Amino acid sequence: MNTDHGAAGARADTASAGATSADTEAPLTRRAGTMPVAKTPRPTSGRGSRNLQRVAVVIPAKDESERIAATVRSARAIPHVDLVLVVDDGSEDDTQHVARDAGAVVVRHSHNRGKAAAMETGAAVVAMRDADGRPPRLLLFLDGDLGDTAVNTAPLVAPVREGVADMSIALLPPQKGAGGRGIVVGTARRAIQHLTGWSPSQPLSGMRCLTREAFEAATPLAHGWGVETGMTIDLLRQGYVAVEVPCDLRHRPSSNDLKGQLHRAAQYRDVVLAVNARRLRGTVDAVRGIGKPRGPVHR
Q: Bias category Low complexity: which stretches (predicted)?
């Protein structure tokens, strides 16, 4: 998935929430006044019960046959992951077959329905596979073009699994060949700050880990490329906790050619639509005197 990160590599409001390598999963030490506490109730305390908290990787993908196998194999190496699910969103290539051969469970849309619909399909399939008597799996959403670096999203799991956050968002390093002037990123960042009080470094980052409860609180998801911006606004307004975590990831950035410009135009359109819908919803709720947020908590 192409994402315009604008001034990539920014580190403002970054949580020190784990190692930046998948080789170790450092436990989180919660110190008074330095770490927030997630809104989502955690599984019963204790090492044994915490080990029941499994993770499902959900990968929305369209025409990613060249990279999806490496992404799937790398994602399977993330600690606590016991399910890798690829949602083939109407690909015209062999994405579904390549992903299945690499070890993923694959579901397919017969035609392209957009990223938000693919995420909702994936989450629904994971819910059907969650076993009774065990905590629902955490949802780790990854882009299909991460390749061998997908395993480096492992640090996203710890803040959510340990109860520090309801949602963790990956901060990517600068991407070679990335185009754009940060217009879409800036628009999304300013909107999130205006509506929630938080100014995320990379508001369009699609690599996110969140609890089942948080995901359902964000549904229905905003359409298309507005899904990340809408999700962040919706969750923070309801008092859920978000953190940003540096992850050493490499993907295929959009360039400055015509295809890249059209992609960023579509991003801008969907982000504006998502923001305007939430502004209207907030105005209506204020008039009715309902839906007042508890106040966002974030790092």
A: 1-26
